[in-house]
Amino acid sequence: MWSIQAISNSQPYTSEQWQKIDTLGQIVEQRLQGLGIGLTMGGEPTFISLDDYESPQWRIAALGEDKRQIAGQLLKRLANRFALGGGLLHYGLGKAYPGEITPRWALGYFWRKDGIQIWRDRALIAEEGKDYGHGRQEAEIFINALVGQLELNPDFVIRVYEVETEAVAGFVLPLLPIAKEGTFYWSSCRWIVPSDRLYLLRGNAPVGLRLPLREISWSEDLQAEAVLSVDDDSMTPCLASVESPANSIRIALSIEAKQGILRVFMPPFTSAKSFLDLIAAIENTAQETGFPVLIEGYPPPDHKKIGKFQITPDPGVIEVNIHPASTWDELVKITTILYDEARQCRLGTEKYMLDGRRISTGGGAHITIGGETIQESPLLRRPDLLRSLISYFQNHPSLSYLFSGQFVGPTSQSPRVDEARHESLYELEIAFSALQPGKEVPPEVVDRLLRHLLVDVTGNTHRTAFCIDKLFPTENPRTQLGLLELRAIAMPPNLEMRLLQMLLIRAMVAWFWESPYTKPLIRWGTTLHDRFMLPHFIGEDLKVVLADLQEAGYPFEFDWFEPFFEFRFPLYGEIAREGIQLELRQAIEPWHVLGEEIANGGVARYVDDSLERIQVKLRGAMGNSPNRNAFSSRYVVTCNGYPVPLISTGVAGEYVGGVRFRARQYASMLHPAIDSHSPLTFEIVDTWEGRSLGGCTYSVNPPDGKPYHTFPTNSSQAQTRVAERFIANPPAIATIKALPLQLNPEYPLTLDLRRV
Predict the structure, then answer these.
(1) pLDDT tens-digit readout, 413-452
(2) What are phi and psi of 32, to 5 degrees?
(3) Alpha carbon distance 646, 649 (integer Å)
(4) Count of structural domains, the chain
(5) Which of 405, 538, 733, 748 has its CB 3.0 to 4.6 Å from that of 398, i.e. a possible disulfide?
(6) Which domain holds residue 236?
C-alpha cells in the first residue's frame, strides 16, 4: 500500500479521516477487481507559479518563457521520480489554436510498458539551456551519419536556407518506412523544388514546421507508410541504393543547431514502430558522433505498449496529462508524486483573486477513465455504463457544480447536457433506448449515438461535461482510445481532495457496473440556475448522492466534502442579533459569452463576469413555518432595501435565498446601463415589531472605494481583504416597514437586483 504524506501547507483532513478514505479506496478497488471491470484512471491537473501571480503567463496567456523553463524542470523530475527507465524525453508539438502561428509546445516522456528501452543513454539527450557549442557543421555531420545508419543515399539530404539571411538554417531528409516486394525498409527520395535552393517560411519556429511544402509539386503516386506492429522485427535497411521516385515522400526529418544544441525534428508517423526504429537510429548516431541531441517535432502515435505523460501550456497554467493508474494504490502513488514534484518546481494548486477570495488555478483538473487498451475499455464493453454516468450526473446537479470552476453555464467550457441545448434531453432519451443494460453495441454506434448530443451550444464536442472525443471517434482512428473525459472539474487545492474526487468516480463505476442506473432524466428548467446555484441545496443534493453510495456498499461521509464547500463557497461574513444569525456566502453565478466583437485585428467573444451571486442564510428565525415550501414571514432580510426570497430549509428557523447583483462594469457586457450594485446592505427586519435587528454591508471593493491593483501573495493578505469588505451594522433607529416580497416565477429563490 502506498503511504500518502502531507505535501501541502493546509491539510483538509485529519489522519483518521484520511485513513477512512484510503480504506474505502481499498474497498472500491476490491470490488472493481472482483467484477473484472479493468478500470484505468488518469487526469489533466493544472498548476500555477507560487512566485508569480501578476505576469500574463500565469493569469491569462498560454505561453511564457518562465512557464516553458519550469515545465522542462518538472518533466525531468517526474521522469526520474517515476523511475520509468529507458524512456524518451521529447520536446515536441502540442495543439494548434486559431490565431496562433505555430502549435504550442508539449513536453513528454515516453516509455515502453514491456520494459524494452526506447532511449538507452540519458547523457545523449541534450540539456536545455546548456550551450554545447554545436552549429551548422555538427548538424551536417550528424545527419550524414544518420543517413549512414539508415543506409540511405546521402544525396537526398537537403540544405534549407533562411530567406532573410541566405544562411543555412538546417538539413532535411525526406524519410518514410515503406514496403517493397515483401521487404520493409527505410526509404528516401529527392525533393525537386522550384528554385536551386529550398527556402524556409519566415519565422522562428523549428525547421520542421517551416518547410514550404505547398510550393513543391508532389508526385501523383505518393509513397504510403508501412505500418508494422511494435514487436515486428521485419524492418530491414535497404542494402542497395534504391530510392523512391522524386517528390513521392512528403514527410521529412530535419536537424538544426540552436543556442549551441542539435535539435532533431521527428516527422509525423502513423506507426509507433516507425517512430521507435528511427529513435534507435538517432541514438546510435548520437553515440557515434558524440553529439547529444534534443528530440523535437511530433510524438509517437498512441500505442497500447507505450506509456506517456505530457506537460503542456494552457492560459495561465501548466497542464500535466498524467499517465493512467490501474489500481487505487497506483493512483495514490502517481498523484502524490506529481503534487510533490510540482511543489519542488515552485508550482501550486491555488491562488487568490484581487479581492482576496481563494480560488483554483484557473485551469481544469479533468478526470479520464477507460481501460488498458481500447478492447478492455469498460465504457465500450458496457456502453450502458456511459448512460448510467450521464444520467446520474444529470439527476444530481451537485456533481456538476461542487467541483467546477468559476465559469459555469451554457456557454462555459464544460456545460451540462441540459444546459447546452434545451432539446438535448428529449434526444438523449432516444439515444439511451439503444444503450440498454446487457445489450451489445458496437463502438462506432456508441460514438454516433452520443457524439452530436454531448456538445456545447455551438456543437463543439470537446467543450462539454462528458467528452467522448477519445472514446471511439469514427473519423479519427488515432484518437480511438476508449476514454471518457469528465471536464466539469476544477483543480482542487489539495492532493487529498483530488484523490477523493477520483474515488467518488471509481465508486460510481463499480456501483453502475453491478446496478445500471436507468432512472428518467429530470427536466430541471430554470431550477438549475436558481436553487442549485446556492451551496445549501448543492449540499442537500450531495447528501442524497452519498446516501445512494452508502446503500450500494460504499460508505462515503459528508464531512469529507466540507473542504470542497469551504473552497467553492467561501464565507463572506456573519452576524448574530438577538439569537438570529445572518450568514453571507459566495454562490454560483453562470456567466455568458457575449457576441462577436472586433479586437486586436481579429474577432473575439468576451466572457461577461460582471455579475455575482450571494447566498443569504438566516438561522434562529423562530415564529416562521418550518415547511420546506414556506417563505420567511415574520423575519425578513432586505438587500439594498428589497426583500430577499428566503425559503425554509426544513429546519425550524432556518431560511435561505440568493441575491444576484452587478459587481463591476466593463466596456462590453450585458445591460451596460445598469450600474454596480455594490456595496450591498443587508438588514434583518422583524415585521411583527416593525424594527431592524441590525445588518451588515458587503462590498466588492475595499472600504475606501479604490479597487485593488495587485494580487495577494499569501493567505494573510487575502483574508484581510475579505474581512475588510464585510462590515457589521447596528440596528436602524427608525421604524421599518419592509417592502412586499415579489417572487419571480422562473427564479423564485433569487433576488435579481437588475430587475427591481
Answers:
(1) 999 999 977 889 999 999 999 999 999 999 999 999 999 9
(2) -60, -45
(3) 9
(4) 4
(5) 538
(6) 133-255+267-290
